[in-house]
Amino acid sequence: MSDDGHEHEAHEHVPSRQRRRFPGISSRAYEHPADRSALVALRKLTGFDVVFKALSGLLPERSLRLLFLSDSVRVSERQFAHLNDMLRDACHILDLEKVPPMYVNQDPRPNAMCIGLDEPIIVVTTGLVELLDEEEMRAVVGHEVGHALSGHSVYRTILLFLTNLALRVAWIPLGNLAIMAIVTALREWFRKSELSADRAGLLVGQDLRASMRGLMKIAGGNHLHEMNVDAFLEQAEEYEAGGDLRDSVLKILNVLPRSHPFTTVRAAELKKWAETRDYQRIMDGHYPRRDEDKDTSVTDSFRESAASYASDVKSSKDPLMKLVSDLAGGAGDLGGRVRRGFGGFGTSTDGTSPKDARPPKDSPPKNRPTNETPPHENN
User: What is the pTM assigned to this prediction?
Assistant: First the structure.
């Protein structure tokens, strides 16, 4: 290290090159419970994905493969060698035997994806490559390898195909409502699968701060000297707890059309998972193996998913979730709670709320003698 300490400063966030490896790890080890339950159920449908793989030539996937091959740069030992090293390292850590093809596509928007039925392919944009440093990019590559190990690329393509097929019969009465229900459920699963892949990225990079920085850069660009991870996480807490029931409804409406959770939410969820006993057990070498996947119970997986959602509602600081939790716990006064949640239903002409406009308890009602004892009020 140089005398002025610059080398130490440049590498203070870089962990040891001796990263832990997870031989035979099942994707169930890092999958979000809602994502895991859907995948377990799909995997139990023997031959379901095989049929669609046979039909892959009829899907846009084949066209995309040719497009990336002809108009992007394939990562290899001779092209983007540093990305090739990261890819092979990620597959080694997660014990993914077949290394997926990876392409760099010219696009200023930072993005990455894992697609494919017959075999997954990973695509990263130049905007992402130019935005992230080595350790941040390592987490992204691990994220996409996590998608490949989970089989997200296969099941995502299948469900998108089924959704597009269903859209063709949307003219049937009530068809649009049914399709919207399917699409809404599909996007909810997509969002949970992204949380799963974020966890896989952390297992590969094994540097939580790098994962946080990468998400922060995706949200705010390459101005790291102007940003702070702790302040970024505080935004997620403010987003969850702030506002009233109106804001809760707006949050739902904002997230419904998205395939990814909001970036601050992803950062907060990843940090929370990194602090759990489950994560520490994986790092200590105790995790489910993929040779046990066939014995996994669908019922148990759905119970875990339901328990996870119930826990999220119970611990949430969101006003709507707190209302749901209170009502589920037997709390009464629904009308009062809703009014308080919306900050009152209106204001009087002098700017006070309807509650504030009521006469004080000690003032006598109109048309009643002042020496008459007022009736008892129920508060």
Answer: 0.71
